[in-house]
Model the fold of this input.
Amino acid sequence: MDARLIIRSLLTLVLIAALWFAWWVFGRSPEAQVRAAQAKLIQAVEERDWDEVQEFLAENYTDAYSHTRESAIQDAKKYLGGFFTLTLKTDQATVRAAKRQGMVSMMIRLEGNGAGYSQLVLGHVNQLTEPWIFHWSNPGPWPWDWQVNMIHHDQVR
Done:
């Protein structure tokens, strides 16, 4: 085969891959971006990767339970840190999003086992009949800059 034909073919493949990547990153709707961010947040909680969870929480995070970004992470560590295994089963997700704002409403059930508060947390969360509400915003220029400003649940006090 001619070297120029090989180079042209490789350049064509690189161009196609670059266009596909650009569409995947920048062409997704805000709803798809929020849905992806929500899935990554849920995964980070399941893995109890608190550094990653903290990256998802906005610096000005606040909620009805008087949490700040830091105190929310501390309470999450306290109540979820004793799990040996933890799975968040999500259901009935509704995602609404515009250019820089989004909201996810979803039912969450916990599965897992562990020590400490684990069984108490499982029982409390799994008895809830209303969905959790996640308020998202994207303050940055990139589609992956979504952050949670507030998490709300009417039945949690």
